[in-house]
Structures are given as C-alpha cells and as structure tokens.
Amino acid sequence: MSNSDRSRSANESAPLGKAEDIPAALRDGNKTPSNRVTSTTVSALPLGGIALGVGLFLVGITAFNLVTTSRDRSTPIPIASPNVDPTTTPATAPSSPQNNTDNVLNHLPYTEAPTAELVSIGGGYRLRKPAAAKFQAMVAAARSSGVNITTISAFRSVEDQKRLFFGVGAARGQQPTKRAEVSAPPKYSEHHTGYAIDVGDAAVSATNLNQNFETTPAYQWLKANAATYSFELSFPKDNIQKVSYEPWHWRFVGDINSLETFYKAHNLQGK
Ligand SMILES: [Zn+2]
C-alpha cells in the first residue's frame, strides 16, 4: 500500500496549499507577550500606581504564560523549528512508553538538508555528499556481483512530504493515524535529511516498496554488505519506533553528522 506513495514522491512536485500552517501562525503573531508587559508598566507610573503596576505586571506575566502555553499546545507543525525541538509535541501525539523524545504518530523530527549539501546520484535523485559517495560505491560493488540496485526515492523536501502525507492521505480518505503507518508527516521524514534512500531490485521491480523486497538478491546483498558502506536499515521488523517494516529504506550513518541526526532523535534507542 505504500508503493505508490514512495514512488510518486521523487518525481512529482505538485504544490500543496499551506492553509494548514496559517491559523496557528496568525494566532501567535497577534499575541506578543512582551507588548502586554510593556504597556501595563508604562501606564502605571504615578502615585499608588506602583502597586497597580505590579499587579498588572503579574497579570501580564500570567497572560504571557497562558499565551506561550497555548501556543505550544496548538501548533502541530511549527515553522522553522530546529532539528529536535522540545516544544513541538502536539496534544495529539501518541504516548509511547518506549518513546522519550518528541514524535508525531511515531515519526521523529528531522531538519531538511541544506541544498548546497545535496548532490545528484543520477535519475533526478539527490543525497548529501558523504552519503552519495558511499551509496554510489555500494551500487557499483553490488553490480560487480551481478546485483542491480535501483533508486526509488532519496532526498525529499518538506513540501514534497506535505503533498505525500496530506494530499495523498486526503485523496485516499485516510485519517492521519492510518496515513502515518505508511508515510511520515512533513518535517518528520528521514528523507528530509538527505541521508535516507529507498532502493529496489531491477530484476524484481514488482517488489519495489513492498515488504517482499526482502526476498530479492538486492536485499540479501545489502543485508550482507551495506554496513561496509555505512548504511543501515532504518525500520527493521518490530523496530522500537513502531514504524512498519521497510526493508527497502536505508540510511547513511557513516559520519558524525548523520549519526547525530538519527541517534539524537532516537534517544529511545538507549532505553
Ligand atoms: Zn523511505
């Protein structure tokens, strides 16, 4: 069921409306806590106004707390958040006992790779430079063993993922909880990092993005050799993140930036 989701993502770029981001952003923009504090303090200058000023100041602080608290709760996907932002947990996030970090429907937050860090790996696909070099060496080694590994998806922008999650989800009439079983919400896909890649076996393309990809020569070769090229499976069977088994989805973990990217997000793995 995830077949068409993943394969479409790399080639299509139909824009999706940004309406889902607007209400929260507008609401936040109209309530600037510092304005409230400043105006009440200035108006309380003379006589016993000091006591009044202190009282209003406290009211202002309370309002500040209320505003910031409600903002944290009401903003499901904040704009321009850092890689792992402790304020982004929405009220709708499921509470997993194994999960001690922020997630949305079991998917972890990732920052989009800077464009300058991305290089082509052919076929219109891009990865970060270190991952691209190792991936291409891996594909060449496999080919010399008679195995033809193909690329199905690589780097995906947050915009790509918006269309994939909300657009395709709506077209299929899927609730977000159902959608998240096969697709990460925007800002929560490993594909944003430029280190993750979906692969197939050219000889058995019917298994593309299907769990029976694990029966192919390509998967068997990767299982035996991917670590040599610093790639690992992101979502093995029964993974602690509780994402569906994806034998086609691999990630580069061969330098400190990629390692930090995935394992700081995966604090749960240490539990
Ligand atoms: Zn993938």
Structural class from helices and strands? alpha+beta
> What integer is the average pLDDT?
74
> For this structure, what is the CATH class of the largest domain?
Alpha Beta
State the strand order across the main sheet: 3-4-6-5
Work out the number of β strands.
6
If you consult CATH, what is the topology of the largest domain?
A: Muramoyl-pentapeptide Carboxypeptidase, domain 2
Overall outline: globular
Which stretches are poorly predicted, pLDDT < 50 over at least 5 residues?
1-100
Percent in helix = 25-40%
Question: Secondary-structure element sequence?
Answer: HHHHEEHEHHEHEEH
How many angstroms separate the termini? 31 Å
What is the name of the CATH architecture of the largest domain?
2-Layer Sandwich
What fraction of residues sit in β-strands? 5-15%
Please summarize the sheet with the most strands: 4 strands, antiparallel
Heterogens: zinc ion
Radius of gyration over all CA atoms, rounded: 23 Å
> What's the helix count?
9
- Count of distinct structural domains: 2
